[in-house]
Amino acid sequence: MALASPEATNLNIAKTLGKSLSSCSANIQKLPHLTDYLPNLKPLPNPLEKNPLYHPPAGFYINQSEVVLRHIVLDPSADSEALSSPTPQLAYTRAGPRRQIFFEPKDIKAAIVTCGGLCPGMNTVIRELVVGLWELYEVRQIYGVTAGYRGFYSRDPIELNPKLVHNWHKKGGTVLETSRGGFDLKKIVDAIEHHGFNQVYIIGGDGTMRGAVNIFDEIRHRKLNIGVVGIPKTVDNDIGIIDRSFGFQTAVEMAQQAINAAHIEAESAVNGIGLVKLMGRSTGHITLHATLSSRDVDCCLIPETSFYLEGKGGLFEFLEKRLKENGHAVLVVAEGAGQDMIPRTDAQKEQRDESGNLVFLDVGAWLKSELNNWWTRDHPNELFTVKYIDPTYMIRAVPANATDNLYCTLVAHSAIHGVMAGYTGFVSGPINGNYAYIPVEEVAQARNEVDVQDHKWAWVRSVTNQPDFVKP
Ligand SMILES: Nc1ncnc2c1ncn2[C@@H]1O[C@H](COP(=O)(O)OP(=O)(O)O)[C@@H](O)[C@H]1O
Ligand SMILES: O=P(O)(O)OC[C@H]1O[C@](O)(COP(=O)(O)O)[C@@H](O)[C@@H]1O
Ligand SMILES: [Mg+2]
């Protein structure tokens, strides 16, 4: 069979793509807008037009019709049937400044809140919201709601300005403080009304976004002129649709220190095992990425795949082989992995944190004990040591690295532009590297789990050469 020349192939692809795109219908996810329930709101020109220092160049403003495609991988050789009746492309409103806005800057009273667990970059997002609102849109009433959702109704908000927040991006954690639980819808929306907030910026994870959906619904139900935006924060990277959360890369980078230490301890012992437990309640993204970038890991265990200890194809058999070959092994486990194997009392089965998340048992401590039992049983006269490192909070209680800090700036400014344009009940985040606005309801439902069928997991397997843990 004659091979097509590269030019011919390119032409074919271009033709097919052209056909595909010309017949492509974009399924644009509808974004809620304040005018949906307040039709009399009048648009105003963007104050950036009169900014004394910055003169918006051509192409600065985003057209209403600009979208970001959800899926950018396309198979141009897909059969003609599929192309003649293409599945509509999922598309989201592109983020960025609009020519027209729906808030008079002097009337804006903005609230910023952080909820859930920590994530590197939270302070940067707060800082950029404050500075962006102040500098871009001349907003002078900006408040921080402290201690998470409960702070709306139980604490006095604190006034924020660029001078106060100017070096917050260098600090880990959240200066505004955060908490789990305390979500009381009526009290929260009453407090928003009472304080006169008309823009609410909510930084938090999956639980927080579910709360934001309720807040938005209630505000819409009361027909209040208040914009609500979510900024997804998830060190576990368990929120779907967006590429990743700010802080995730920083956490992966921090995890390297723990893996390096585990490797050194294991290498320096006779039959040494270095065991590291990383964050990841229901997803193993941190563990997977830390494994891929380290290359010192012999076995990576995540919640999305099960494993077993004893017998053919089990963890013990694999580790025994590695110890024989290399004298040491490094094991990295996500906190949510193997939870079904750890014995629990009835009380432990019921234990929940303030937000209602199941409290996990320590998979690292359990594995360490199981490994020790196994070795003393099977090799009573041979030296063996397990060095267990749990860097849980060390990987998230740090300032964001440069890449994440940049992300924080873009996501915060995108959120501001969206709220100013009258959008509400949405989330600002990157999709395929482009910032977009996504209905918060969709984000609250979208999970992002490690796909163990895709290439990334295959890379892990090729780096570690670990078993599939398929029972014979
Ligand atoms: N289904 C839900 N509806 C309303 N609020 C929720 C829901 N789930 C969690 N929350 C609230 O969101 C906040 C943070 O949730 P949590 O699960 O602790 O962290 P994260 O947002 O980081 O996932 C808490 O105040 C919690 O009460
Ligand atoms: O001890 P805390 O503060 O509850 O945080 C621990 C948990 O936070 C997480 O990072 C998830 O937090 P978020 O849902 O807030 O992103 C889990 O991996 C971990 O179980
Ligand atoms: Mg969560």
UniProtKB/TrEMBL annotation:
Predominantly, its location class is cytoplasm
User: Pfam families attached here?
Assistant: PFK
Quick check: keyword Cytoplasm in the entry?
yes
- What GO biological process terms does the UniProt entry carry, in alphabetical order? fructose 6-phosphate metabolic process
The residues listed in the UniProt record as binding substrate, with positions renumbered to this chain, are T234, V235, D236, M279, G280, R281, E335, Y393, M394, I395, R396
What EC identifiers does the entry list? 2.7.1.11
The pathway this protein participates in, as annotated, is: Carbohydrate degradation; glycolysis; D-glyceraldehyde 3-phosphate and glycerone phosphate from D-glucose: step 3/4
Q: Which residues form the active site?
A: D236
Which residues are involved in binding Mg(2+)?
Answer: D206
- Named cofactor requirement(s): Mg(2+)
Q: Phosphofructokinase domain: which residues?
A: 110-417
Annotated residues for binding of ATP? G117, R180, G181, G205, D206, G207, T208
Name the site position(s) for Important for substrate specificity: G207
Name the keywords, alphabetized.
Answer: Allosteric enzyme, ATP-binding, Cytoplasm, Glycolysis, Kinase, Magnesium, Metal-binding, Nucleotide-binding, Transferase
One GO CC term of this entry?
cytoplasm
Which reaction is catalysed here? beta-D-fructose 6-phosphate + ATP = beta-D-fructose 1,6-bisphosphate + ADP + H(+)
How the protein is activated or inhibited is described as: Allosterically activated by AMP.
Q: Where in the cell is it found?
A: Cytoplasm
An MF annotation (GO) of this entry:
ATP binding
Q: HAMAP family this protein is in?
A: Phosphofructokinase_II_X
Q: Sum up the protein's function in the record's words.
A: Catalyzes the phosphorylation of D-fructose 6-phosphate to fructose 1,6-bisphosphate by ATP, the first committing step of glycolysis.
Q: How does it assemble?
A: Homotetramer.
- Say which family it is in: Belongs to the phosphofructokinase type A (PFKA) family. PPi-dependent PFK group II subfamily. Atypical ATP-dependent clade 'X' sub-subfamily.
For this entry, the protein name equals: ATP-dependent 6-phosphofructokinase
List the source organism: Dovyalis caffra
